[in-house]
Amino acid sequence: MWTEKYRPKKIKELVGQDVVVKRLKGFVNEKTVPNLLLWGLKGTGKTSMVYALAAELYDNYDENLLLIESSDFIEQRKKWLQDNNRFKRFYDDQKSAMDIFKGMIREYAVLAPITAEFKLIVFSNADLLPPDAQQALRRTMERSNRTSRFIFCTTKPAGVIPAIRSRCLNLYFRSLAKSDALDTLLRRIAREEGIELTEGGLLMLKRYAQDDAGAAISMLEASSAISSLIEGKAVKEVVRALFMQRKKVDALVESVFRGESKSMRTDLERLINDERKEGRKILLELYEALRSKMNAERCDQKLFARLMLYTGETDYELCYSLNNMMHIEEMMVKWHQQQNSGVNKQPGII
Description:
The protein is of the alpha/beta class and 350 residues long. The protein is built from 17 helices and seven strands.
């Protein structure tokens, strides 16, 4: 995949993040790094920076880098813990998933690395971790500073508790739209792959990717399979073929507003099971589809605000739930009732 092929191998290769690059190069020169909070929009290079930093700190970073996708743990719980080879010896089936998780991180963090001064423990989408898990991580950070450094990556820094934020160096990853970094990256990849990327194709890639470099690269790769000349039309065909998810979510929202409960349940089950979508990702897509619908139809902004309150409630509930469908389905029922009531109800009152 081109996203991996063209992932930066060194810190200086990351485009569009000059301030972050300068700070981290200084730490690499000193062979040390503090605890970090990397935040910014999706696709701006946070994960790529983590891998580049590890590659420059260690001769073999596989031994000293542990990257935890928080959404996987929140979604799968004990299954994720059982399947993680590094944590198998810490697993205890008699404890809850959260207790096992906190104990595993605590025990792993204090183990001294064999070939380095410290390990890197990275949490992607750190805002998804419940507050009690974050509090436990804060204590572990303090106790294991000699053996481990913690890196938290997030698009929502407010979702990371202040106790962690204050103990990390905060580094902001700016939007790639604020520079020509994404243009430069896509043109370079096209040149190295021997394909021609037109201005129209470039504009269409940026439009559909919404400043997400990974998405833009994936769409460019898919478009190259159709033609070596990447024009706007080719990108549109790829988006229609590979990104039908949005249409399915739009159809689901339409079912909600029409009160078609059977279609709503069937479509939601398909998204969760067949598409293997994690609950909070589906919630985000539903939010985007709802916002587009409300804007296109010039709906009452007060109604939109009330529906968003239900969405916020569901977002919170999904942090602790093992049944995503139940909470999302309940939210959509409330959307339908609110849309048809014409009454300014408060969330929680149907």
